[in-house]
# Entry
Amino acid sequence: MQDKIVYLNGEYLPLSKAKISVLDRGFLFGDGVYEVIPAYFGQLFCLEAHLQRLNNSLHGIRLPISLDTKQWLEILQPLLIEGDAQYIYLQITRGVADKRDHAFPEQCEPTIFAMCSEIVPFARDKGVQAITLDDMRWQLCNIKATTLLANILLRQQAVDNACAEAILIKDGYATEGAASNIFAVIDGVLVTPINSNEILPGITRDVIIDLAKVNGISLREDVISLAALQSASEIWLTSSTREILPVTSLDNKPVGNGQVGPVWQTMQKLFQEYKGAIS
# Structure
């Protein structure tokens, strides 16, 4: 298999040759952030929005990076591979310090790593199963941090139950999925949780909100109680690589009539048209 080319600290090199120090704070502490940027037909999707979220995450961990959109584009564009759908994984850590210490080092050069992979297609038209689990994560979920152990354990619990995702419940209301944002159609209205420190501000989520407003789909950002989620006629999971994935079974019970719903079908068409229009 061909060794893909990745970017690491100013160099493009084969993945097998990309190495970091064991003293990198990303390795020792998970002291870093990441971003996932989809690309369609050779064009990075919603790049400005992804970079704004990246900068917000960097600000949240007090790690300034002074690269503008043009500079990021110059770094990321050469990594794109052939294919209709792919994504860039971009990770920035605080870098390598001369000793292991929880406190920020006085001088440390950030480690910047990026690579490109194909987006594996999902069979969205049949829907997926999901499970609800207690949200046990930390209080700064709006930072796209690399410290994802809680998310990993929750997602694996979903996989162990033959589900595609865990929808997380905190104090009786839904926050998001272990690796996705959520939407639900409740009494004919498309509802998604309000942006806060309890959820990641999803780029796909924002696109869906904009498309709903422009196309007359009734939508509100609001709390979704567990009871409301359980009675929803449609539930969706959204992310950069999954796009809009309908949930047809929740906790082994059908969502609505157990089939992909009409609001999802409308939004799926609008989203695919939007992708084609800006690519």
